[in-house]
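Lab meeting, action items carried over

1. Structure of the two-component assembly. Owner: GW. Status: complete.
Input record:
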Amino acid sequence: MAEERDPRAERFERYLDALIAGERPSPEDVASGDEAEMARLAAEMAGAASRDTADPDPAFVEQLRLRMRAADAGLAAVQIPPPVRDLAAEPAGQRPWRLSRRQLLQGGIGAAAGLAAGLIGVSVARPSPVAAPSLGGDEDLVAGEGFWQKVAQLADLPPGTAARFSTAAFDGFVVNDSGDVRALSSVCTHMGCTLQYRPEWQDLRCPCHGASFDLAGQLANGRRTWRDQPYRGDARAYPIELPDLVRPRVKVADGVIMVWTAQA
Amino acid sequence: MSTGPGPFEQVYGKHVVGIYRFVYARVGNRPDAEDLTAQVFVRAVEQLDTAREPGQIAAWLYRVAQNAIADHWRAFYRLPLVGVDHVAPGWEPADDGAQRQAPPDERASIRVQALLGDLPDRYRRVLELRFLQRMSVAETAQAMGITSGNAKVLQYRALRKAALLGDAVDG
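Predicted assembly:
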């Protein structure tokens, strides 16, 4: 067979490579309805082949069990803060600069300071005088040792759009909100699931419970706005208030969008 | 004072591994499998009536899992998918707790084997090496005596062919 190169096959290989390595593959490497069918079949093949590794991680099972137990105690699942992994027990050598979504959800300056104790180059820039602040809103996600990482071209981000990015310390979206460029963490402030951008609604949607955040990072389908304007396509309002999405520091220079992130 | 596990924890203990395996067989990676498994049980806490018969509870959980997977594909790809909501033949979720003909995670494996069997030899070979033996592209290429570039093209065409065959089966 003569040497052939096919750009579609090259790009699709990135999807397969992640899948076969056991990582979450990216939909960006899937470009058509046909490829989506191929990707789904590939996922089934990857799932069928790993009979010995198809058992859940015990830590995951325990964390979810705690939520079941709390439900039995009569608390509604949506009101329970996520179980917190004891940071003092984290092994020191375990990629400390990487913010897991559970860590991001601990919330509060006290917890953030706790994060900083074990993590390199990650802290909250402006200590807040408020007793129990959340990590949402304008606080910097990273201060101290860090650098500006390019994440997108301004020309590729017309108003009303968002683009995913990934850095050593966190993942997120850069958005163009009617000309205002900002960065938003992709971690849902409810239970820490990864938000998905929906271009047709211009929002960031959580696949776990359906929270929708607008391009300002605020909950868009909550009770407060529901009465005046039910949210597109949803049957009911999101039942609880959620903090705003965390905003990594961002700047635009020479048409290049950059976020401030920690050294790897 | 300790009391035994409550109804939700009991349902969870009984079904978490089965649900996880069911989901994993269809999404093929741990991060997605964990997210969707959590979604199933959070929905159970919100909507499941634990006073129902065990068979009804099991059927309900697997139906929620099936829907969560279907939603996952729709949201993930934002592309029209054929047959995403189809239940594999022989597995009919039913409120009366009807007997399952095969364990849910086995059905996906049987379907994959059937599709592989229908492929031309070279297509089947490249998919077996990549997925069943978890070989890298370079290793697969070497095993088949072709270049890496060709291996990527071959696996692409093999999956496309298999997906087309799958459509024909689902009808």
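2. GW to write a short summary for the group page. Key points so far: Confidence is low (pLDDT under 50) at residues 75-139 of chain A. The CA atoms of residues 8 and 31 of chain A lie 8 Å apart.
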